[in-house]
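User: Okay, second chain of the day. Same drill as before: sequence in, structure tokens out.
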Amino acid sequence: MAFDTFDEGIIPGGLRSKNEIKVLICYLFHTVNDSLSKNIVVAAIQNESLANYFETLSAFDDLVQNENLRECENCSKDKTYILTENGKMIANQLETTLSYTVKDKAYVCATKLLSQKQTEKNNSAEILKTEVGYDIECKISGGDIELLKFTIYAPTLEQAILIRKNFYKNPTLIYNTVLSLVTNDKASVNDALEQLNKRL
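Assistant: Same drill. Structure tokens below.
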């Protein structure tokens, strides 16, 4: 299969064909068997470094345009998608199209997607390209209340992806740490730092 995508940030053996990326996206939807947002799917693929970030976005949009993915009619305020019958046919191509390494990592992606879906309901981290690098717009909310919103700059896409990945690991810890610092609650700051050290 011809390589027709950028390969920045992709592991050896990762996907460098847009058709392969489309197959992977359909496979993830088929495996999870639930509605998913575009951000969750792209983040899951990026966390495993299976495909280029912008090529994954483009492949997802192509699947929607070609009616392989359909917007969920009864979804919440966040836009989610479900796999159509055409999309399921594409997912079945996985066995013959993708390598064992990619299939294995795709399975890991799929198992993480459901927990990420729950996390993204209350939190989001969106990567935006700028003239000088990338901005990661992070939001932490508690239901209908936005608790914290901030933007972090990253000079490269790899760093931006890493920041977003780490943000999703524990947004609650980030919020508690910032709150402790701005309220000068030294005991809470120490507790937050201890939690952080345990994760390092």
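The longest strand covers residues 145-154.

User: Thanks, on to the next one.
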